[in-house]
Specification:
Helix 2 links the parallel strand 1 and strand 2. The radius of gyration is 16 Å and the shape is globular. The protein has one domain: 3-Layer(aba) Sandwich (Rossmann fold). The two termini are 24 Å apart. By secondary structure, the protein is α/β, with parallel strands linked by helices. The chain contains nine helices and six strands, in the order H-E-H-E-H-E-H-H-E-H-H-E-H-E-H. A six-stranded parallel beta sheet has the order 2-1-3-4-6-5, sandwiched between helices. Bound molecules: thiamine diphosphate and magnesium ion (MG). The site of thiamine diphosphate (TPP) has 21 residues, from helix 2, helix 4 and helix 6.
Length: 205
Protein backbone atom coordinates (compact mmCIF):
# COMPACT_ATOMS: atom_id res chain seq x y z
CA UNK A 1 0.00 0.00 0.00
CA UNK A 2 1.32 3.42 -0.93
CA UNK A 3 0.82 6.20 1.60
CA UNK A 4 -2.82 6.69 2.64
CA UNK A 5 -3.66 10.26 3.70
CA UNK A 6 -7.03 9.30 5.25
CA UNK A 7 -5.77 8.19 8.67
CA UNK A 8 -8.15 10.26 10.78
CA UNK A 9 -11.27 9.84 8.62
CA UNK A 10 -14.37 7.95 9.73
CA UNK A 11 -14.78 4.27 8.75
CA UNK A 12 -18.03 4.88 6.88
CA UNK A 13 -18.46 5.79 4.09
CA UNK A 14 -15.21 4.04 3.17
CA UNK A 15 -12.37 6.34 2.12
CA UNK A 16 -11.54 4.97 -1.36
CA UNK A 17 -7.86 4.68 -0.49
CA UNK A 18 -8.82 2.29 2.32
CA UNK A 19 -11.11 0.36 -0.02
CA UNK A 20 -8.02 -0.25 -2.17
CA UNK A 21 -6.21 -1.34 0.99
CA UNK A 22 -8.88 -4.02 1.57
CA UNK A 23 -8.57 -5.17 -2.06
CA UNK A 24 -4.78 -5.26 -1.94
CA UNK A 25 -4.83 -7.54 1.11
CA UNK A 26 -6.35 -10.29 -1.07
CA UNK A 27 -4.24 -9.78 -4.20
CA UNK A 28 -1.45 -12.35 -4.45
CA UNK A 29 0.84 -13.29 -7.37
CA UNK A 30 -1.93 -15.34 -8.96
CA UNK A 31 -4.74 -12.81 -8.71
CA UNK A 32 -5.87 -11.00 -11.84
CA UNK A 33 -7.17 -7.46 -11.25
CA UNK A 34 -9.23 -5.62 -13.87
CA UNK A 35 -9.88 -1.89 -13.67
CA UNK A 36 -12.56 0.31 -15.22
CA UNK A 37 -12.53 4.01 -16.08
CA UNK A 38 -12.90 6.99 -13.77
CA UNK A 39 -11.85 7.69 -10.23
CA UNK A 40 -12.05 3.99 -9.36
CA UNK A 41 -9.20 3.27 -11.76
CA UNK A 42 -7.11 6.15 -10.46
CA UNK A 43 -7.60 5.00 -6.86
CA UNK A 44 -6.10 1.67 -7.96
CA UNK A 45 -3.31 3.30 -9.97
CA UNK A 46 -2.31 5.41 -6.98
CA UNK A 47 -2.72 2.97 -4.12
CA UNK A 48 -2.69 -0.66 -5.33
CA UNK A 49 0.59 -2.53 -5.46
CA UNK A 50 0.28 -5.91 -7.14
CA UNK A 51 2.95 -8.44 -6.12
CA UNK A 52 3.60 -9.55 -9.70
CA UNK A 53 3.64 -8.05 -13.18
CA UNK A 54 1.16 -9.06 -15.86
CA UNK A 55 -1.72 -9.31 -13.38
CA UNK A 56 -3.31 -5.84 -13.62
CA UNK A 57 -5.41 -5.00 -16.70
CA UNK A 58 -7.21 -1.79 -17.64
CA UNK A 59 -9.02 -0.47 -20.69
CA UNK A 60 -5.97 1.25 -22.10
CA UNK A 61 -5.45 4.75 -23.46
CA UNK A 62 -9.03 5.78 -24.13
CA UNK A 63 -10.24 4.34 -20.83
CA UNK A 64 -13.65 3.01 -21.82
CA UNK A 65 -16.20 2.68 -19.03
CA UNK A 66 -17.91 -0.70 -18.75
CA UNK A 67 -14.75 -2.65 -19.56
CA UNK A 68 -13.83 -4.13 -16.21
CA UNK A 69 -16.77 -6.44 -15.49
CA UNK A 70 -16.79 -8.31 -18.83
CA UNK A 71 -12.97 -8.40 -18.71
CA UNK A 72 -13.15 -9.99 -15.26
CA UNK A 73 -15.73 -12.51 -16.48
CA UNK A 74 -13.45 -13.40 -19.43
CA UNK A 75 -10.37 -13.70 -17.22
CA UNK A 76 -12.28 -16.01 -14.91
CA UNK A 77 -13.54 -18.11 -17.81
CA UNK A 78 -10.13 -18.43 -19.48
CA UNK A 79 -7.89 -19.04 -16.45
CA UNK A 80 -8.01 -20.93 -13.15
CA UNK A 81 -6.86 -17.84 -11.30
CA UNK A 82 -8.69 -15.71 -8.74
CA UNK A 83 -10.10 -12.58 -10.40
CA UNK A 84 -11.04 -9.27 -8.80
CA UNK A 85 -12.75 -6.77 -11.11
CA UNK A 86 -12.95 -3.21 -9.82
CA UNK A 87 -15.37 -0.66 -11.26
CA UNK A 88 -17.31 2.50 -10.50
CA UNK A 89 -21.08 2.41 -10.17
CA UNK A 90 -21.53 4.14 -13.56
CA UNK A 91 -19.32 1.68 -15.44
CA UNK A 92 -20.85 -1.24 -13.56
CA UNK A 93 -24.37 -0.27 -14.65
CA UNK A 94 -23.25 -0.21 -18.30
CA UNK A 95 -22.19 -3.87 -18.55
CA UNK A 96 -23.32 -5.63 -15.38
CA UNK A 97 -25.41 -8.05 -17.43
CA UNK A 98 -22.16 -9.77 -18.49
CA UNK A 99 -22.34 -11.45 -15.05
CA UNK A 100 -25.03 -13.67 -16.51
CA UNK A 101 -22.31 -15.31 -18.62
CA UNK A 102 -20.30 -16.08 -15.48
CA UNK A 103 -23.37 -17.57 -13.80
CA UNK A 104 -24.17 -19.69 -16.85
CA UNK A 105 -20.60 -21.02 -17.13
CA UNK A 106 -20.16 -21.51 -13.36
CA UNK A 107 -17.15 -19.29 -12.98
CA UNK A 108 -16.75 -16.94 -10.06
CA UNK A 109 -15.06 -13.55 -10.52
CA UNK A 110 -15.30 -11.10 -7.64
CA UNK A 111 -16.55 -7.63 -8.59
CA UNK A 112 -15.94 -4.67 -6.29
CA UNK A 113 -18.04 -1.59 -7.12
CA UNK A 114 -16.45 1.54 -5.66
CA UNK A 115 -19.85 3.19 -5.36
CA UNK A 116 -19.96 6.99 -5.00
CA UNK A 117 -23.49 7.22 -6.45
CA UNK A 118 -22.34 9.39 -9.36
CA UNK A 119 -20.03 9.70 -12.35
CA UNK A 120 -17.47 10.69 -9.76
CA UNK A 121 -14.51 11.67 -11.89
CA UNK A 122 -16.58 14.00 -14.07
CA UNK A 123 -18.49 15.38 -11.05
CA UNK A 124 -15.24 16.28 -9.31
CA UNK A 125 -13.85 17.90 -12.47
CA UNK A 126 -17.07 19.93 -12.92
CA UNK A 127 -17.04 21.04 -9.30
CA UNK A 128 -13.79 22.87 -9.99
CA UNK A 129 -15.83 25.04 -12.42
CA UNK A 130 -18.89 25.18 -10.09
CA UNK A 131 -20.99 23.64 -12.88
CA UNK A 132 -22.39 20.21 -12.00
CA UNK A 133 -24.48 18.65 -14.80
CA UNK A 134 -25.52 15.15 -15.83
CA UNK A 135 -23.45 13.21 -13.32
CA UNK A 136 -25.91 12.38 -10.53
CA UNK A 137 -28.37 9.50 -10.79
CA UNK A 138 -30.64 7.32 -8.73
CA UNK A 139 -28.99 5.09 -6.12
CA UNK A 140 -29.78 1.77 -7.82
CA UNK A 141 -30.12 -1.27 -5.56
CA UNK A 142 -27.33 -3.30 -7.17
CA UNK A 143 -27.75 -6.14 -4.67
CA UNK A 144 -31.28 -6.81 -5.90
CA UNK A 145 -30.32 -6.43 -9.57
CA UNK A 146 -27.34 -8.76 -9.26
CA UNK A 147 -29.31 -11.39 -7.34
CA UNK A 148 -31.81 -11.22 -10.18
CA UNK A 149 -29.00 -12.18 -12.56
CA UNK A 150 -28.28 -15.26 -10.42
CA UNK A 151 -25.06 -14.02 -8.79
CA UNK A 152 -24.23 -13.28 -5.14
CA UNK A 153 -24.29 -9.70 -3.93
CA UNK A 154 -23.66 -7.77 -0.75
CA UNK A 155 -23.39 -4.14 0.29
CA UNK A 156 -20.60 -3.02 2.64
CA UNK A 157 -20.05 0.24 4.49
CA UNK A 158 -16.62 -0.21 6.14
CA UNK A 159 -13.11 -1.28 5.15
CA UNK A 160 -13.29 -4.28 7.49
CA UNK A 161 -16.61 -5.43 6.02
CA UNK A 162 -15.16 -5.02 2.52
CA UNK A 163 -12.10 -7.04 3.48
CA UNK A 164 -14.25 -9.86 4.85
CA UNK A 165 -16.63 -9.77 1.89
CA UNK A 166 -13.79 -10.12 -0.63
CA UNK A 167 -12.42 -13.10 1.33
CA UNK A 168 -15.83 -14.79 1.31
CA UNK A 169 -16.36 -13.99 -2.37
CA UNK A 170 -13.03 -15.52 -3.39
CA UNK A 171 -14.20 -18.80 -1.79
CA UNK A 172 -17.64 -18.72 -3.44
CA UNK A 173 -18.68 -21.00 -6.28
CA UNK A 174 -20.56 -18.30 -8.18
CA UNK A 175 -19.77 -14.68 -9.03
CA UNK A 176 -20.10 -12.09 -6.28
CA UNK A 177 -20.64 -8.35 -6.51
CA UNK A 178 -19.64 -6.23 -3.53
CA UNK A 179 -21.30 -2.82 -3.49
CA UNK A 180 -18.75 -0.82 -1.47
CA UNK A 181 -20.10 2.54 -0.34
CA UNK A 182 -17.20 4.96 -0.64
CA UNK A 183 -16.68 8.55 0.46
CA UNK A 184 -17.68 10.57 -2.64
CA UNK A 185 -16.04 13.71 -1.24
CA UNK A 186 -12.54 12.30 -1.24
CA UNK A 187 -10.91 14.28 -4.07
CA UNK A 188 -9.14 11.93 -6.44
CA UNK A 189 -7.07 14.41 -8.46
CA UNK A 190 -5.68 16.01 -5.31
CA UNK A 191 -4.09 12.68 -4.37
CA UNK A 192 -2.30 12.04 -7.66
CA UNK A 193 1.33 11.23 -7.04
CA UNK A 194 2.53 11.68 -10.61
CA UNK A 195 3.77 14.74 -12.45
CA UNK A 196 2.77 12.99 -15.71
CA UNK A 197 -0.74 14.46 -15.68
CA UNK A 198 0.53 17.99 -15.27
CA UNK A 199 2.86 17.42 -18.22
CA UNK A 200 0.05 16.20 -20.52
CA UNK A 201 -2.41 18.91 -19.45
CA UNK A 202 -4.61 17.01 -17.00
CA UNK A 203 -6.46 13.74 -16.80
CA UNK A 204 -7.73 11.97 -19.91
CA UNK A 205 -10.40 9.25 -19.84
C1 LIG B 1 -17.86 4.69 -22.55
C2 LIG B 1 -17.37 5.92 -21.84
N1 LIG B 1 -18.18 6.99 -21.74
C3 LIG B 1 -17.75 8.11 -21.10
C4 LIG B 1 -16.49 8.17 -20.58
C5 LIG B 1 -16.00 9.46 -19.88
N2 LIG B 1 -15.88 9.20 -18.43
C6 LIG B 1 -14.68 8.93 -17.85
S1 LIG B 1 -14.81 8.60 -16.22
C7 LIG B 1 -16.47 8.86 -16.24
C8 LIG B 1 -17.28 8.69 -14.99
C9 LIG B 1 -17.20 7.28 -14.46
O1 LIG B 1 -18.15 7.10 -13.40
P1 LIG B 1 -18.10 5.79 -12.55
O2 LIG B 1 -18.06 4.59 -13.42
O3 LIG B 1 -19.17 5.83 -11.53
O4 LIG B 1 -16.67 5.89 -11.88
P2 LIG B 1 -16.14 6.93 -10.76
O5 LIG B 1 -15.43 8.02 -11.50
O6 LIG B 1 -17.33 7.43 -10.00
O7 LIG B 1 -15.21 6.11 -9.94
C10 LIG B 1 -16.91 9.22 -17.54
C11 LIG B 1 -18.32 9.54 -17.90
C12 LIG B 1 -15.67 7.02 -20.71
N3 LIG B 1 -14.43 6.98 -20.22
N4 LIG B 1 -16.14 5.91 -21.33
MG1 LIG C 1 -19.14 6.51 -9.54
Amino acid sequence: MLSDPTGSKADSPIPPQRAVNAIEAHVDEETIVTADSGNNRFWLLNFLQTPDTGTYFGSGGVGAMGWSVPAAVCASLLTDRPVVGVTGDGGFAMTMTSLETAVEHRTSPVIVVLNDRSLGMVRQMQSADSRIEGVEFRDTDFVTVVEGLGANATRVETERALHEAIGDALEAASPTVIDARIDRDEEMEATLQSSFYADVGGLHE
